[in-house]
Write a structure and sequence with these properties.
Layout (H helix, E strand, L loop, with lengths): L2 H5 L5 E6 H20 L11 E5 L1 H6 L2 H8 L5 E4 L2 H9 L5 E4 L8 H6 L2 E5 L2 H14 L3 E7 L12 H12 L3 E8 L10 H19 L6 E5 L1 H6 L9 E4 L23 E13 L4 E2 L5 E2 L4 E6 L17 E4 L2 E6 L7 E4 L11 E9 L6 E4 L1 H8 L3 H6 L6 E5 L12
Parallel strand pairs: 1-19, 2-3, 2-9, 3-4, 4-5, 5-6, 6-7, 7-8, 8-9
Antiparallel strand pairs: 1-10, 10-13, 10-17, 11-12, 13-16, 14-15, 14-17, 15-16, 17-18
Helix pairs in contact: 2-4
Length: 412
């Protein structure tokens, strides 16, 4: 067994990330793109599109450096949310192109240019300031232009005014415009009407640019949902962006999950620190929000909202796995601990693994169950993105690689 994984037994709470699952998910998203481009249900067309892997927000809680190191040979770009995230990758040996997908203040320009980090720009003033920095350094700054096709977040409008910004950026001597992109607001919905309108607006902007003789190396718009459902996969788009799907989660319940076999890469686990029997009428946790209606066996789990486990799960039917069985959460979730009902688990003892998210088998291997990020999100009234991004840094991540480390025992 992988030593680091085994050491986790002595920790209060941790997450295990299967890097082979991440690589599998990239392959699946590439296959989706090939099917959508060719109509070949086998996905047999050779993949000739750039791949961007989003590792912003510490790779959605999975650990940006380790994930990037594991998949660098499969991708062409990494996406981050800020310059600091890009610098972290560079400092840890990542050589691939890095794109900051969000806005950047001019105080970050020098570090970005020096470290060959590509920035997102959507106004001429920022472009000019970036060019000035690059000129002073004797270097060329690389950027992608963001276009707003309905998100109303960042980006030039897909019209003549937006085109004038693109022209200005291209004219700057120490600037290279490597790409133009947009982000869909509704690609993960079953009704693709609005996503189609956004795609039409983006295509319209591309036609405006081409009519002016402007040639930009990359035009891209397909996030995970768009890749799965075939939006923005047509000719002329040179890159797909793998976000939530990279980590084995679907963007929503409305995308066609049959198109991609995604595998969750993260297992979140803790342990029982106390097992006891309480009597009928005994209350549990802050505020006595639960009172036993019978004698029952309960367990204490060493994880709480300070680890990122949502406190709102208190009283929302939240469950965890012990010995492959579902156990309900009792009373209020505390900062560092919470209690569970062990009535349905035979012979539970202190030290038993508790799975908060992921799969667990019974000790005899006869059955198993899974708690998904989507299930937790639904009970919290949010989305899976928030759940995995919310796992705090004190939850130590350890890594397994079932493709490359035979017998490490770390598969989820």
């Amino acid at each position: 067994m992988n030593k680091n994984y085994n050491d986790l037994i002595h920790e209060r709470c941790g997450a295990v990330v299967d890097l082979s699952a991440v690589r599998h998910n990239i392959s699946e998203l590439k296959r989706c793109h090939d099917i959508n481009m060719s109509g070949d249900p086998t996905g047999g067309r050779q993949h000739d599109c750039f791949v961007l892997a989003s590792v912003k927000a510490d790779a959605y809680g999975h650990g940006a450096v380790r994930v990037a190191q594991a998949i660098e040979e499969q991708v062409d770009y990494f996406a981050v949310a800020c310059t600091a995230e890009g610098l972290e990758l560079r400092e840890n040996g990542i050589k691939a192109r890095i794109l900051v997908l969000g806005p950047v203040f001019d105080t970050d320009f020098e570090a970005a240019v020096k470290n060959d980090i590509t920035l997102t720009v959507f106004d001429a003033e920022s472009g000019s300031l970036l060019e000035k920095t690059a000129r002073q350094l004797g270097l060329t700054a690389h950027l992608h232009l963001a276009v707003d096709t309905g998100m109303s977040r960042i980006g030039v409008m897909p019209d003549e005014d937006g085109l004038s910004v693109l022209k200005k950026l291209i004219s700057l001597e120490h600037i290279r415009v490597d790409g133009v992109f947009t982000h869909f607001a509704t690609a993960d919905e079953a009704d693709k009407t609005e996503a189609g309108k956004a795609l039409d607006r983006f295509n319209g902007f591309r036609r405006l640019a081409e009519a002016e003789g402007i040639r930009v190396p990359l035009w891209h718009c397909a996030n995970t949902a768009a890749v799965i459902d075939g939006i923005g996969a047509g000719d002329g788009f040179g890159m797909i962006r793998c976000g939530i799907g990279l980590y084995g989660l679907y963007p929503s319940a409305e995308v066609n999950r049959k198109n991609a076999d995604l595998r969750p890469a993260l297992k979140w686990r803790s342990f029982l620190t106390y097992v006891r029997t309480i009597r009928k009428g005994t209350s549990v946790s802050y505020g006595y929000r639960f009172t036993a209606d019978r004698d029952m066996v309960i367990g204490t789990v060493c994880c709480g909202y300070a680890d990122g486990y949502p406190r709102i799960m208190s009283g929302q039917g939240g469950e965890v796995l012990v010995r492959g069985r579902r156990c309900r959460i009792l009373g209020s979730i505390c900062m560092d601990q919470f209690m569970i009902d062990l009535s349905g688990v035979q012979d539970a003892v202190k030290g038993d693994e508790v799975v908060l998210m992921g799969t667990q088998e019974s000790p005899d291997g006869c059955f198993s169950d899974i708690i998904t990020a989507e299930e937790i999100a639904e009970k919290c009234g949010t989305i899976s993105y928030e759940i995995i991004c919310g796992i705090k840094q004190r939850v130590r991540r350890v890594y397994t690689d079932t493709d490359r480390e035979a017998g490490d025992g770390g598969a989820l």
